[in-house]
Amino acid sequence: MDGGGVRTLASITFLKLLEKKLGVKIHEKFDFFIGTSAGAISCLALASKNFSAIDLEKIWAPNNLKKTMQSSSWELRLGLLQSNPKYTNVGKREVLKKYFGKTILGESNKPVAVLSYDIQKRSPVLFRSYDKEDKDISLVDVGDATSAAPIYYPTAKVGNRYLIDGAIVANHPVLHGYVEAKKLFPDSEIRVLSVGTGLSKRSLNGEASMKWGIVGWLMHDLFGLMVESSLDHELAGEIIGEHYLRVNSAINSVNRRLDDRSSSNIQRVVKMGEDWWEQFGDRTVKLLSE
Predict the structure, then answer these.
(1) Burial class (CB in 10 A: 0-12, 13-18, 19+), 110
(2) Nearest-angstrom CA–CA distance, 144 and 99
(3) Which of 61, 158, 166, 226 is 20 to 30 A from 117 in CA distance terms?
(4) Residues near 79 by beta carbon (within 8 Å), at least 6 away in sequence
(5) Which of 285, 287, 286, 290 is nearest to 22 (CA)?
(6) pLDDT tens digits for 96-105?
(7) Nearest to residue 284, comparing CAs of 234, 244, 232?
(8) What are phi and psi of 111, to 5 degrees?
(9) Which residues contact 36 (CB under 8 A, 6 or more apart)?
(10) Mind listing the pLDDT tens digit for each residue in 125-162?
(11) DSSP character for 165?
């Protein structure tokens, strides 16, 4: 499952419709989960807490989104260029504690992997529930680290490591997941369902971009540009072949900003997930039923 802020509700909407069609909960149907950022938090809930897709929706309910997005600085209210993260991680951690409590990664019921990035070592970090070095780390710390998106949230500290959003490495962690699945299930045929959060296809002014500095790029969603590459999808299609299905689309009328929690935007996000079911539902059921 991809990262994507509030747009993760499109992924969850699709999974809710899939769950209804299959007649079993998502955590029962799949053997391994991997995610980045918001998608990672959902994967942790599925693998460790046996959540249904309907349960996942509750994590992203309006009251939880409000708590998660607590402004960190007076600069924002005055409309000045922010020098601090847009939000604190206090509310985010409170929401994570509400659903994960004191559960540690090693207590997961099914194998799960979560992507983050170590800014001191300048290297990706893949938290694994089946790795003895990671098993005692709390789900709250893992969820905080994988979703510590630069600009939006402060860097997370886990042990002696300083970690940020795994989207810096791969917002779409399908290749990392496929490699891990091959290790866990070496004698099995691997089937992969990858659920995105929409792609911003808004064209930018190439000539104007030649004069953009930090402010210009931030105004034009620099972080969004960094995480929305389709390269992993294209490579996965070549490597995995017919046993790989990617559920995603252009965001169209959905706000490209990852933190637009307005009711009107959330409605559009949910509608995107419903549209995905119309487009990919039959193929998904076929992939999982053969």
Answers:
(1) middle
(2) 13
(3) 61
(4) none
(5) 285
(6) 999 999 999 9
(7) 244
(8) -60, 135
(9) 1, 2, 3, 114, 115, 146, 165, 166, 167, 169, 170, 171, 172, 173
(10) 999 999 999 999 999 999 999 999 988 899 999 999 99
(11) E
**What radius of gyration, in Å, describes the C-alpha atoms of the chain?**
18
Rounded to two decimals, what is the model's pTM?
0.90
The Cα 150–Cα 14 span in angstroms is 28
pLDDT over 70 at 203, yes or no? no
Rounded to whole angstroms, the Cα distance separating 147 from 167 reads 8
CB 180 within 8 A of CB 34: yes
Dist. CA 154–CA 150, nearest whole Å: 7
The pLDDT value given to residue 287: 96
Tell me the pLDDT of the chain averaged across its residues: 89
Amino acid letter for position 223:
F
| Tokens at 137, concatenated | 């780390």
Instruction: Tell me the two tokens of residue 235.
Output: 């490579």
H/E stretch holding 47: helix 37-49
